[in-house]
Specification:
Elements: H1 16-21, E1 37-38, E2 41-46, E3 49-55, E4 64-69, E5 72-79, E6 94-101, E7 112-116, E8 119-125
Length: 150
């Protein structure tokens, strides 16, 4: 049987979000009461935009919150359990949250978010590329008395 080796982290402290996000040994499905479920995301860039796609099945767009702070984009949602009796359920209920760090500051305007078929898609324009050109600056010889200017 072949398979990929698990990722080894070289830290003395475990990634608690990852550790608690999975089944805790001996306690299947256990999560801290205050923990939010992580939202699976993918981030791509190209054609002048960053695009974040987040899996949020069974949500209403009104239940999804999207906030931007500098270069951090946070997606939050809450999936409330209905009150009907169930014989069996594997659905996840409660709070969901994920924060993603982008390479650039998120602009105030022109961010577009849409939700369809359980996928939240957020398009964020990339900042304009710096169009400055390289130039050479001539270095002059200092005259007497100009060497120690501070």
């Amino acid at each position: 049987m072949t398979g990929a080796k698990p990722e080894r982290r070289h830290s003395f402290f475990p990634d608690f979000d990852t550790w608690f996000g999975r089944e805790f040994p001996g306690l299947p499905g256990w999560r801290p009461a205050t923990a939010a479920h992580a939202i699976p995301v993918e981030v791509t860039s190209g054609d002048g935009v960053y695009m974040l796609r987040a899996e949020l099945p069974g949500m209403d767009p009104e239940d999804i919150s999207l906030t931007a702070d500098d270069n951090l984009l946070t997606v939050s949602a809450e999936h409330r359990e209905n009150t009907e009796d169930k014989d069996h359920s594997e659905f996840r209920y409660g709070a969901f949250r994920r924060t993603v760090r982008l390479p650039d500051t998120i602009p105030v305007d022109d961010v577009d978010a849409s939700y369809a078929d359980g996928i939240l898609t957020v398009r964020i324009p990339m900042p304009a590329q710096d169009t400055r050109t390289t130039r050479t600056i001539r270095v002059k010889r200092a005259t007497d008395g100009e060497e120690d200017r501070s």
